[in-house]
Structures are given as C-alpha cells and as structure tokens.
Amino acid sequence: VQLVESGGGLVQPGGSLRLSCAASGFSFSSLAMSWYRQAPGKERELVATVSWTGVSTDYADSVKGRFTISRDNSKNTVYLQMNSLKPEDTAVYYCYVAIFGSWGQGTQVTVSS
To answer: CA 98, CA 91: separation in Å to the nearest integer?
Structure first.
C-alpha cells in the first residue's frame, strides 16, 4: 500500500489549495478514503471521508462548507479542495485508508499572511 500526497504549500488567509493523494498497491476503487490533519502540538484529526463511489462524503464541522473531498477512481487519486483557508487550517495533511491503517507521508499546508 502506497499513498503519496502533494499540493501543499504556503497560502494567504482566504486563499485556496488543492491536495492530491495518489494511491497504489490495493483496490482503490472499492475502498473509502479519508484526509486527516495534524497541527503542531495537537492530535491528528479527521478532516473528510469519501465513499468508494464518491457519492457519499463526510466532513469535520471545522471545514464544512469550505473543503470538498472527491476522488477519481480511473486515476487512483483522492483530492481535497480547500477554500477560504484560515490560519487554523495550518497542519500536515495526510491521506488515509482505514482498512489497512495506512498513511501517506503528509503534505504541509501553511496559512499565513
């Protein structure tokens, strides 16, 4: 199982970023996928989950209405579109597949002026 995140960076408050997670080594199209994040000094928290079909999604209250999770099963990739970013969104963002308990290496998102 391999998960490779990309798309992080430095953005000003109110800006947008799109994270990608390329998956390999398992049957991606049949499994739900999630994004987590971990801010300095804090526990890792669930941000969003998407069902294997992409039809059902779930979000943490802190990101509802601002973040959108989606997937492209033809590319074995899950995305996290992040809009209206706030300084409190600063964290390392991780891709996660629950059935294997596998994490990617993470991608840093920093929201600062």
So the answer is: 20
For each of the chain's 113 residues, which pLDDT tens digit applies?
A: 999 999 999 999 999 999 999 999 999 999 999 999 999 999 999 999 999 999 999 999 999 999 999 999 999 999 999 999 999 999 999 999 988 888 889 999 999 99
E strands, the chain, where?
2-6, 9-11, 17-24, 33-38, 45-50, 57-59, 67-72, 77-82, 91-97, 102-103, 107-111
The two three-digit tokens of residue 53, written as one number: 């079909």
What is the C-alpha separation between 49 and 39, in angstroms, rounded? Answer: 19
CA distance 2 to 21: 10
β-bridge pairing 57-59 and 45-50: antiparallel
Report how far residue 6's alpha carbon sits from residue 85's, in angstroms, rounded to the nearest whole number: 17
Work out whether the CA dihedral 1, 36, 58, 73 comes out positive or negative: negative
